[in-house]
From TrEMBL:
InterPro entries: SAM-dependent_MTases_sf. CDD domains: AdoMet_MTases. One of its GO terms (biological process) is methylation. GO terms for molecular function: methyltransferase activity. The keyword S-adenosyl-L-methionine does not apply. It comes from the Bacteria. It comes from Streptomyces adustus. Keywords: Methyltransferase, Transferase. This is Class I SAM-dependent methyltransferase. The keyword Methyltransferase applies.
Amino acid sequence: MAALRPGYLADLAGGPDRFFEPPRTACPWCGSGRLTTRLRTTDLLQHKPGRFVLDRCEDCGHVFQNPRLSEAGLEFYYRDFYDGLGEKKLGDTFGGRSGMYRDRAKSMLPYDPAPKAWLDVGTGHGHFCATAREVLPGTEFDGLDFTDGVELAAAEGRVAHGYRGAFPDLAPQLDGRYDVVSMFHYLEHSTDPERELRAAWRAVRPGGHLLIEVPDPESRYARLLGRWWLPWLQPQHLHFVPVANLRRRLTDLGFTVVAEQHAEPHDPVDLLAAVWLALDHAAPREDAPWLPRPPGALGRAGRVALLVAGIPALVLGTLLDRFAVRPLSHRLGLSNAYRLVARRD
């Protein structure tokens, strides 16, 4: 951290305003100018400086970051999250979710029980691909990502081929190669979702399938928990697409949506995550290279004391998430994600 601190402080010397593009006056999904502010928040995970605004289109319901991060902003706020300082923590987190990965792979079985080639876009360290081979042992899984995690995934054998870069730029060399292309919690990170969907149409062979899972901005949790709803994930999540919007756009591109799921992709962590985010926000900061100096002994002790005091609330949130809310999540409108399976015609 000491080695990284001078670089971060130099980046922040002029303030965070340079990390943003000019604000939009029209919806990036439908072009309407009827915009309202949906949410104002800060970086609740890394606690990097900056304030972030999500606007909502009153005509189509699309929610998007406005002003949006610039290329410099994307580099700054992604730095040391999935790679660098955050690589081990995030790798351990994603590596421990094998049950969820198996469920994702099984969602394709009714539509293609034996795909030969599968491309996972936004694969990270490739943990989904490694687990999905247990469900589909005859399928070759490739991964694509713009971070160096995909290179690690290839080196570790979790993917057969790892492509590093932007999907729309790489799509021409992947033309019609895949029986399945998956985007699990990827589209919300993209600067231009429609361009990503067009790239997917190109990479999927005719008759093949596109599998998309994204946060559901129409979830009641999004309103009830406000800025403490984990899927807002600011500043990384740039677009939140209502399911009706995505269905129509896929149809326009030449897909047929064959399945829409809400209960299955729900991740039962909303209350636990909200409690953790609130505790972490209230506690003194732990050390990070974007802070001017490391915290002192008093601050470290105060942080530990507050987090320990919050353990009962964390346990209660976990129990409610898993045993009270999860069985009824879709019926109560609390599902935090949705999944679409679409066939390329």
